[in-house]
Design goal:
By secondary structure, this protein is α/β, with parallel strands linked by helices. Helices cover 38% and strands 20% of the residues. It is built from nine helices and 13 strands. It has a five-stranded mixed β-sheet, with helices on both faces. A four-stranded mixed β-sheet has the order 8-12-7-11, with no helix packed on it. The chain has a two-stranded antiparallel ribbon with strand order 1-2. The protein is globular.
Length: 308
């Protein structure tokens, strides 16, 4: 039996959000029509795709979602190849990405776009958070990729990665040889950070996380911010907090230590403007596909303000 692409997207959206209500709200419809359409699909298939209360996929549902993702990807490629054969301009996606995504996430998304959608121009800009959010508010960017970005309120977003913080110290630090440390071990140390004006929301979230444990630290704002300069700013004392995935990108003379305290996770999100062009939505879907392929979503708590 044929299943239209729209219904495949609906099922995938509910599976990822874990909620019929959340997806219905994003689609600007009430929940009953969405639930009814998926119930009709289940009757036609002769299987239940979801367990209800709480909403989660059945084994058959997991198979359907995996196959639906492959079908949708194939449909996108068919459109791309058709347009390319006709010499049609596929458009452009203007994406801004933060310095913490420049080593791993953005290169992989860019490579996937070139491999699967070579006809779409990806115009990328790397910058600190404040510059990117200002450019987005001015209409200069279509997509943002970053951690705790203050995106325009009307934009949509989805979690690509959720991970814990690690403590970063110089190789000569008194704690550098340990596998893990607690914030109590760091009492009397100074948190080395970038100036708040570069990424206000990220800066505030990190400090709020520290204070939630009852610990307080002096903060030194590095006049030479950036991961490439860590071996200078951490040469004698002090520490930094970074997402775990950045450990493999740090310069020599730096030690990453597991943080024993439970802090709120740090989330990487892709965000995009409402009523996006096909090129922009292709980039967003590609970013989410890369996240699934790389296993970034394993620990992700969910999505917010997301468009299926």
């Amino acid at each position: 039996m044929p299943v239209d692409l729209r219904m495949m997207r609906y099922v995938i959206a509910v599976a990822e959000a874990g909620s019929f209500e959340a997806v219905a709200e994003r689609l600007h419809m009430t929940q009953p029509p969405l639930s009814r359409q998926i119930r009709d699909l289940e009757r036609e298939l002769g299987v239940n795709l979801f367990h209800r209360r709480p909403t989660r996929l059945t084994e058959a549902g997991r198979v359907f979602v995996e196959a639906a993702r492959e079908v949708l990807a194939g449909a996108e490629q068919a459109v791309e190849r058709t347009r390319r054969a006709a010499g049609v301009d596929h458009g452009a996606a203007r994406v801004g990405y933060t310095v913490t995504t420049a080593f791993d996430e953005m290169p992989k998304v860019f490579a996937a776009m070139r491999a699967r959608h070579p006809g779409i121009r990806v115009e990328a800009r790397e910058a600190w958070d404040a510059e990117l959010t200002g450019a987005a508010a001015d209409g200069e960017l279509d997509v943002l990729l970053g951690r705790h970005l203050a995106v325009p309120a009307e934009w949509l977003s989805a979690v690509l990665r959720s991970e814990e913080f690690v403590v970063v110290v110089g190789a000569g630090h008194r704690l550098a040889g340990r596998a893990g440390v607690s914030l109590r071990d760091l009492r009397g140390e100074t948190l080395r950070f970038f100036p708040r004006r570069f990424a206000p929301l990220y800066y505030d979230r990190v400090l709020a996380g520290l204070r939630s444990t009852g610990e307080e630290f002096d903060v030194w704002e590095n006049p030479l911010p950036g991961l490439r300069n860590l071996n200078v700013s951490l040469s004698d004392s002090g520490y930094m907090l970074l997402p775990r995935s950045l450990c493999g990108q740090l310069p020599g003379g730096i030690a990453c230590l597991r943080l024993k305290d439970r802090l709120p996770p740090i989330e990487l999100r892709v965000s995009w403007q409402r009523n996006p062009s096909p090129a922009v939505m292709t980039l967003v879907r590609t970013a989410r596909r890369v996240a699934r392929r790389e296993g970034w979503l394993t620990a992700a708590p969910g999505t917010a303000r997301e468009q299926p």
